[in-house]
Amino acid sequence: MKKKYFVLSVFVFIAAISSSFTFLNTTSNDNQKINWLSMEEAVELQKTEPKLILVDVYMPNCPYCTKMDKTTLGHPKVREYITENFYAVKLNAFDNKKITIGDREFKVDKKDRYRTHELASFLLRGNMQFPSTVFIDENFKPLNSVPGYMDAPEFDQILQYYGQGFYKKVPWGIYMRNSKPRFSK
């Protein structure tokens, strides 16, 4: 009987120690998260320091949105590159919040049976796939919408294309043929 309690005590001790290490690791990674802004904040910041805006359009309870948040947007090199080169915005495609940009107000489209946010529909040009990443230039002109889940190396290539300004001079297909990911998974 004593042996059974001893084994149980050792198991509980190991579980407690490993969970405290997990807690420490997640706490240290919190300092390295992307600084997500509202669309209004990103547009306002663009006025004083022009940068492209990266919009992560997602749907609540979307498994691929969650996976992309954890694996792709959680990758240290991806996070660092986004933080340095873009204003990052998360946009819930079904949020009820009004968003005002300049003299235009975007809200939930009550005529839409899915009650989609008008800004999400505008940015995705009606192609409501989740997750989607939209790149917007300094004049609030959407450059491109990239639908679907992507792994970190593939997403990093897209970030480089827009972040380094290649989109201004090189067609996407030529860029992809001639570029290589900066890292592997």
Shape: globular
Order of helices and strands: HHEHHEEEHEEHH
Query: Please, how many domains?
Result: 2
User: What is the gyration radius calculated from CA atoms?
Assistant: 21 Å
CATH architecture annotation of the largest domain:
3-Layer(aba) Sandwich
Largest sheet: 4 strands, mixed
Low-confidence stretches: 5-30
Q: Which percent range describes the beta-strand content? A: 15-25%
CATH class of the largest domain: Alpha Beta
Count, helices: 7
CATH topology of the largest domain: Glutaredoxin
Kindly name the structural category. alpha+beta
Overall mean confidence score, pLDDT: 85
CATH superfamily of the largest domain: Glutaredoxin
- Count of extended strands: 6
Report the helical percentage.
40-55%
Question: What topology, given as strand order, has the largest sheet?
Answer: 2-1-5-6
Distance between the termini: 48 Å
What does this structure look like?
- The model is unreliable at 5-30 (pLDDT under 50).
- The longest helix has 29 residues, at 2-30.
- 45% of the residues lie in helices and 17% in strands.
- It is globular.
- The protein folds into two domains: 1-31; 34-178, Glutaredoxin, CATH 3.40.30.
- It is an alpha+beta fold and 185 residues long.
- The strands form two sheets. It has a four-stranded mixed β-sheet. The protein has a two-stranded antiparallel ribbon with strand order 3-4.
- Strand 3 (99-101) and strand 4 form a beta hairpin.
- It starts with a helix and ends in a 7-residue tail after the last helix.
- The chain contains seven helices and six strands; from the N terminus they run H-H-E-H-H-E-E-E-H-E-E-H-H.
